[in-house]
């Protein structure tokens, strides 16, 4: 294990520029596949640090790679990837540093802390690059600028293009309320639009001539609600009505649209549920004499943990120690807890990571215990697809007050605060130290690869996004595929991954 002091020194030396980068991305708050400003800011910093940039990877204008270290050739050494994100969420514009809801002119907000995630991974990549150069070690570090984690599965499209297959390992993190290894079994997911086409008519004088697409959407939602009683307890199905067919109640709505997000503990389970949802849509169309179309939007795989790398990261976190918050950090977090969080928020947050529910500090100033057993994460992340292509490890960083819900204005309000910056810096040190362990410790990398190969034996990666599905911003077929017209080319991946690993 390398000297943590070296890592700390290297990260501290570049912390100011990466904190500024994080705040810039917070201000921009760009949605999926629109993160042009964030990408420009990250590339500018990485180019200044001497990284070689490859733009527009996987055909995505807001995806890029930045690499440093020895070029390809003999004596190359390992290749370690750092994964960064930068996309925001809609409807979460919020003033910074206040403890009440205060929307801003910026409609979007960094409701999942991806401004911190990307900047922290950039900082870790820079520290690894500097370490390799100072110690004259072989090997390369590659930073991936990954767009559209929120509802876009950017990494899954990148995985489909083969962009992670040459990595020896991948390292990343996620801002949260706790500090420790992020050893989780996440949920795979599939997202698709269901569009119904009916026939308009005067709703009073000739309702019998109309066929309501909105009725079809409502019946579909009722059918899926009944399905929830008869699906695995660790699966989830969500929806949002995205087009009600207009605002005139005296017109029978000839079109309507609903967006469904189906989650399961594996791609196989999510696929099975998705096929059932499609059948319910067909049934709704039959009942209303409308047509149902499905437009497959995106999908991602479940995370496959790597215990060998997780133990290495845990040892580094223990050496680094907890984040050193000050009285001002604790005071702001306490005020936020009083004004904007409920006891249930705090209880659920603590329970989700196995911390004692009696923990009463506003910020997490300790380290999560780790015993090599993954916890169930009921959310999803496209990091899962990377983990099926190379050994992958993640950690949490305690950027937000304990109890802060994800995807909330409360989280946005904390994204530029000193506590968040301190936690980002500590997470960057943990990632850099673990990446350097993998680069310099042949036995660790061998153990991580052997574990990954054992878990994937006979069960290789299959991208859950079918080959015919175009990137959302390139999609030419805006209607989708007519259900009931035969086998859809947008059927999800074959059911070969029968259970989580």
3D structure, described in words:
The chain has helices spanning 4-28, 36-48, 114-134, 154-160, 213-227, 267-288, 307-320, 327-340, 343-353, 383-387, 409-414, 418-440, 442-456, and strands spanning 52-55, 64-69, 79-85, 140-146, 169-176, 180-181, 184-185, 188-197, 236-243, 255-264, 291-300, 375-376, 392-398, 481-482. By secondary structure, it is α/β, with parallel strands linked by helices. It has a seven-stranded mixed beta sheet, sandwiched between helices. Helix 1 packs antiparallel against helix 2, helix 3 (114-134) crosses helix 12 and helix 7 (307-320) crosses helix 12 (418-440). The longest helix has 25 residues, at 4-28. The radius of gyration is 23 Å and the shape is globular.
In short:
This protein has 501 residues and is an alpha/beta fold.
| pLDDT < 50 stretches | 487-501
Query: Would you count the extended β strands for me?
Result: 14
Major sheet: 7 strands, mixed
Multimer state: single chain
Q: Indicate the proportion of strand residues.
A: 15-25%
Order of helical and strand elements: HHEEEHEHEEEEHEEHEHHHEHEHHHE
Sheet with most strands: strand arrangement: 1-2-4-3-5-13-6
What is the average of the pLDDT values?
93
Helix content: 25-40%
């Amino acid at each position: 294990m390398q000297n943590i002091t070296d890592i700390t020194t290297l990260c501290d030396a570049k912390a100011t520029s990466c904190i500024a980068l994080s705040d810039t991305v917070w201000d921009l708050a760009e949605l999926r596949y629109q993160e042009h400003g964030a990408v420009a800011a990250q590339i500018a910093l990485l180019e200044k640090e001497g990284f070689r940039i490859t733009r527009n990877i996987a055909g995505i204008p807001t995806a890029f790679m930045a690499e440093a270290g020895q070029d390809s050739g003999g004596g190359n050494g390992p290749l370690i990837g750092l994964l960064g994100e930068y996309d925001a969420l809609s409807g979460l514009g919020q003033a910074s540093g206040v403890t009440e809801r205060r929307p801003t002119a910026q409609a979007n907000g960094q409701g999942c802390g991806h401004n911190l995630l990307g900047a922290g991974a950039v900082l870790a990549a820079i520290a690894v690059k500097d370490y390799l150069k100072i110690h004259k070690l072989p090997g390369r570090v590659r930073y991936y600028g990954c767009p559209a984690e929120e509802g876009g599965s950017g990494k899954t499209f990148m995985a489909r293009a083969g962009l992670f297959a040459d990595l020896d390992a991948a390292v990343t993190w996620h801002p949260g309320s706790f500090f420790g290894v992020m050893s989780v079994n996440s949920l795979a997911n599939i997202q698709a639009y269901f569009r119904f086409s009916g026939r308009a008519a005067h709703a009073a004088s000739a309702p019998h001539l109309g066929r309501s697409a909105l009725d079809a959407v409502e019946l579909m939602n009722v059918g899926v609600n009944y399905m929830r009683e008869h699906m695995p307890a660790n699966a989830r199905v969500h929806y949002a009505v995205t087009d009600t067919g207009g605002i005139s109640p005296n017109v029978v709505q000839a079109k309507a649209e609903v967006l469904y997000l189906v989650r399961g503990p594996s791609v196989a389970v999510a696929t099975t549920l998705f096929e059932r949802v499609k059948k319910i849509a067909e049934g709704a169309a039959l009942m209303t004499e409308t047509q149902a179309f499905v437009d497959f939007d995106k999908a991602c795989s479940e995370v496959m943990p790597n215990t060998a790398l997780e133990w290495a990261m845990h040892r580094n976190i223990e050496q680094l120690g907890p984040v050193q918050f000050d009285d001002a950090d604790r005071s702001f977090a306490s005020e936020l807890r009083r004004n904007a969080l409920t006891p249930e928020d705090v209880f659920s947050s603590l329970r989700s990571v196995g911390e004692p529910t009696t923990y009463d500090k506003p910020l997490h100033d300790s380290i999560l215990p780790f015993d090599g057993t993954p916890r169930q994460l009921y959310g999803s992340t496209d990091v899962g697809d990377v983990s099926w292509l190379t050994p992958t490890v993640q950690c949490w960083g305690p950027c937000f007050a304990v109890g802060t819900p994800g995807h909330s204005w409360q989280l946005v309000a904390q994204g530029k605060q000193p506590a968040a910056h301190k936690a980002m810096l500590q997470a960057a040190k943990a990632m850099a130290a673990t990446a350097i362990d993998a680069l310099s410790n042949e036995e660790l990398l061998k153990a991580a690869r052997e574990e990954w190969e054992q878990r994937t034996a006979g069960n290789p990666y299959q991208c859950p996004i079918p080959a015919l599905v175009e990137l959302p911003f390139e999609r030419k077929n805006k209607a989708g595929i007519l259900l009931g017209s035969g086998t859809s080319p947008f059927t999800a991946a074959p059911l070969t991954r029968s259970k989580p690993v």
